[in-house]
Amino acid sequence: MAYSDKLLDHFKSPRNVGTLDKSKKTVGTGLVGAPECGDVMRLQIEVDPETQTIVDAKFKTFGCGSAIASSSLATEWLKGKSVDEALTIDNMAIVEELALPPVKIHCSVLAEDAIKGAIKDYQQKNGILAEATVAEEAKA
Amino acid sequence: MTVNRQRHIYLDNNATTPTDPRVVEAMLPYFYEHPGNAASRNHPFGWAAEEAVDYAREQVANLLEVDSKEIIFTSGATESDNLGIKGVFEMYRRKGNHIITVKTEHKAVLDTCDHLEKLGAEITYLDVDSQGLINLADLEAAIKPTTILVSVMWANNETGTIQDMKAIGDICAKHGVLFMSDATQAVGKIPVKPKEVGVHIMAFTGHKMYGPKGVGALYVSRKNPRVKLTAQMDGGGHERGMRSGTLNVPGIVGLGKAAEIAKNEMAQDAERLSKLRDKLETELMKLEEVYLNGAPHSRMPHVTNLSFKHVEGEGLMMTFNQNIAVSSGSACTSASLEPSYVLVALGLGDDLAHSSIRFSLGRFTTEEDVDYAIKAVAEGVNHMRDLSPIWEMYKEGIDLSTVQWQEH
């Protein structure tokens, strides 16, 4: 399987690898996937409570090259976005950006879920449950 | 050849082997200089081709210590497996419809059995233990009056596990059941003598033993017992009527030459490769949480299958696959997204199956290759573990089995 240059670049030089202090109120953590399925993605955001802007994002991923590249790209996109903007990130945008082959689309879905999970965690910690999230929950 | 050429190290010899240059050389005259059809009985072109095929048949028979009349040339091991199993089922249908095989067989056997099941066959799939070996008592207990065939692979392609062929052969002989083996991974690499162990039908191929692709063979016993197979390819009645189709003369010449070289060099190759394999394995197992898959005391000399815990196999391969070729049992390498059924049959959890890498060395592997691979793979494992959230959790002492995962 031939991968796109962008995907290989994110795989070889992943951006924002690391861990944020999950005990901080300003940090939200999303952990999705399972070791048995071959993919576990942990995505964390740090939010400025004043502006509701994502000031930092970190990830660690157990998975194939596409899963690692998807989560690396997600952290890049998250930084500087408002929480509301971040909620609109769609997995298909990741598919397009990295030119993921059909068999790897689930990696982008996992990244989208990790973003949503991190935001939900942040909002729950801070007693905010944005309508967007409630709507998402209702859909699920 | 440029000095700075990118290093390419091939440690995927169980997928296919390079064709030995001596084999290529033997084949070349049979494309243009000797173009004859081995079935053309009335001119020198045909005679030359027939002579070459006869000679190759002798070379193959010599390697296996069987009669040359017992070798049927085919297009490869998949065809040989199909011919052996379907041929027995059709020929011996009146005697019974029960076939016994093993869960870790190659798809060429499993899917053939699956196909026959739809046509009325009853198939028993034996389990294997944690090393990939079948339980002989289970085998004997599974045999019944309607059993017409037991098919057990000689050596497994993923783990290199070698079954106790003699013990299986004795059980089959005791019960008067035909014994077939897919010996694709074993022929040419370890001594394979079907008559010694009681194998009556045996499939193998050229391209796993430094011969060309597109040519294989089926050994079919002619004496004690005389096995008959229903042909699966109808036509001109080649190969004693068991496999019609114009013979692939250059391919057959190549398979013959590969068999001759194997007979002469197998022992020294195996000795050298087992040392290199052991070095690779020992060095990589110095990393934390690395597990060996297979039977350490009954396996092919050139194979090691390792699981690097908390690292996903395909991701790991991507760290070095510009230079080093290996295989993984990770689901991500397959279209189905299911991890290796062979490793799962050994009782590995899906997580360890996803983390597995198969290294298969070959005649052209050097110590320098192995040293380079040790370094590159160890670096890859460390890199992937730095990226792995579950490695971090493991290091923090979190019991991963207690985590509530959000499965997809």
Description:
The complex is a heterodimer of chains A (140) and B (408). The N and C termini of chain A lie far apart (33 Å). Chain A has 6 helices and 3 strands; from the N terminus they run αβββααααα. Chain A has helices at 5-12, 65-78, 83-86, 91-98, 105-125, 131-139; strands at residues 27-34, 39-48, 53-62. Chain A has a 3-stranded antiparallel sheet with strand order 1-2-3. Chain A has 140 residues and is α+β, with helices and mostly antiparallel strands. Chain A is globular. By secondary structure, chain B is an alpha/beta fold. Chain B is built from 13 helices and 13 strands. Chain B has helices spanning 21-27, 44-64, 77-91, 107-118, 136-142, 165-175, 194-197, 249-284, 313-320, 341-345, 350-354, 367-387, 389-395, and strands at 9-10, 71-74, 98-102, 122-126, 147-151, 178-182, 201-205, 216-220, 290-293, 303-308, 324-325, 327-328, 356-360. In chain B, the strands form 3 sheets. Chain B has a 7-stranded mixed sheet with strand order 2-8-7-6-5-3-4, with helices on both faces. A 4-stranded antiparallel sheet of chain B has the order 9-10-13-12. Chain B has a two-stranded parallel ribbon with strand order 1-11. In chain B, helix 1 runs antiparallel to helix 8 (249-284), helix 8 (249-284) packs across helix 12 (367-387) and helix 9 crosses helix 12 (367-387). The longest helix of chain B is centred in the middle third of the chain and has 36 residues, at 249-284. The mean pLDDT of chain B is 95. Chain A binds chain B through residues 11, 14, 17, 19, 31-42, 60-68, 103, 106, 109-110, 113, 117, and chain B through 310-312, 314-315, 318, 330-332, 335, 337, 339, 349-351, 354, 384, 386-392, 400, 405-408.
Could you write a compact summary of the structure shown?
The complex is a heterodimer of chains A (140) and B (408). By secondary structure, chain A is an alpha+beta fold.
